[in-house]
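Milestone M4 deliverable, item 7.
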Amino acid sequence: MPTEPISRLGGAAVTAADFHDDLAAKWEAKYRKRSFRIRAECLLSLLKGLPLGGSSWLDAGCGTGYLAREFVARGCTVVGVDAAPAMIEMARSLASGLLPESLRFERIETIEKLPMQGGSFDGVLCSSVLEYLDDPGKCLSEFHRVLRPEGWLIISVPNQTSLLRRGLELAARCSGVLGSRDPLSYMKHSRNVYSLSSFGKLLGSQGFTLIRHNIAGSPLPMYLTRNKAVGTLMNVLACRSR
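Output delivered:
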């Protein structure tokens, strides 16, 4: 998560990292809800056919580490990073039964500047983080740098073509509540939304080729959730192409 001030509450700067830090204790439980469970299943389905055994991955914006643990279960080694200290603390606690060489978590200032050497990973995972950043292109450039040639990128971003998301954005703008108890408060921190075409162009500008994608992100029946006019989230598999 970024650390730059992006909104204000009672005169104090509030960042996306601060916002998610406050949610850390409840974040893992979200994956027991249908909408988050489907989000995770759709994202993980993009791994089908990839040579995962023994591959090394960076989970950029790992939260409580749910997806990182799913990657470890599929034979990967994972380093998870996040700017929210409480998220990292929770992630470490939940992964206490796993070997440190398989999964570890580090707190960083921002995923727009990673403390890893170039060519360190076979893959990068970044789930629902890009929308909060000042400079998504800079972040993608960092992912390109830390990936090995032909490395994989699995990333999820808000779906601009979703009529449901547009409705939620309108509801969030009409709401005067900014606290984390407001279910739409995350919308007030979200900056960047994409169509498949616009995100493909952004990926291409940073040396990636879009391979495939799917749509998720709603509590509605699957046949509606996977529709680009409904699902609020776009999951993308891309490859470092240069």
